[in-house]
Amino acid sequence: MTPTSTIPWSRTKVCTRGDGYDKGHLCASEDRVYCEDANKQTFYYANISPQIASFNQKYWMYLEQQVQKWGRSTREGTYDKVYVVKGGTLNKLLTNFTGTMKGGDGKYPETDAEGFTIHGLAVPAYYYMAILAEKGDTYHAIAFLVPHSELLPQKPTADDFQVYAVSIDKLEQETGIDFFCNLPDVIEDEVEKAYNKADWAW
After folding, report:
1. Phi and psi angles of residue 137, each rounded to the nearest 5 degrees, phi first
2. Nearest CA to 45 among 27, 60, 62, 63?
3. Per residue of the chain (202 residues), what is the pLDDT tens digit?
4. CATH topology of domain 9-197
5. Is 105:38 a contact under the CB 8 Å cutoff?
């Protein structure tokens, strides 16, 4: 991991050491492979969030790969553009958690009653993705709101992903964030109110 100019190295390094969590990328390294500088930016501390190892390395990774396929399908003309927003629910934290599996540092991940690690980092109870695909004058949207848990499928299928699929409106209700607000209101209202799994190449 690399410090950014606004985050002191000593603080970020200490705050992530020995807490049992993976340094989970929000923007995945594989999302930024078009040039070396863009890929390096995914390793900034500003782009990481504490993630349970099995969550980060299994379910979430496979979901990221599914979304990357949608993004790269622009080359074949399935979509013209795909926009992706990722994050964790800082308004809903993982409280009083003690993991049953050690992280890569040999420690069990834990949170306190407020949802913070031993070093005071907030641990989201959910991670999410909001996806908007554009094809000509047509838009499709889908979101995923995934519990931050050790208990998710280790080799998830499309059906496993769809369990946590929600509309953009639902994700906005849960996070308090207004996604894709630059769309014209009439388009935003229509595309965000529901999702159709048939719109997506699983």
Report:
1. -100, 10
2. 27
3. 566 656 665 456 667 788 999 999 999 999 898 899 999 999 998 899 999 999 999 999 999 999 999 999 877 888 999 999 999 999 999 999 999 999 999 999 999 999 999 999 999 999 999 999 999 999 999 999 999 999 999 999 999 999 999 999 999 999 999 999 999 999 999 999 999 999 998 9
4. Extracellular Endonuclease; Chain A (3.40.570)
5. no
Query: Most distant CA pair in the chain: distance in Å?
Result: 51
Q: Is 140 considered catalytic here? A: no
Rounded CA gap, 100 and 86, in Å?
26
Whole-model pTM? 0.92
Return d(Cα 87, Cα 28) in angstroms, integer: 11
Structure tokens at 45: 């501390």
Looking at 25, 119, 140, 148, which residue is catalytic?
25
135 vs 130: CA distance, rounded Å: 17
Whole-angstrom distance, CA of residue 176 vs CA of residue 201:
29
Q: What's the sign of the alpha-carbon dihedral 6, 34, 191, 128? A: negative
Q: Is 56 annotated as a binding residue?
A: yes
- Please report, for the chain, the start and end positions of each structural domain, with discontinuous segments joined by +: 9-197
CB atoms within 10 A of CB 70: 19
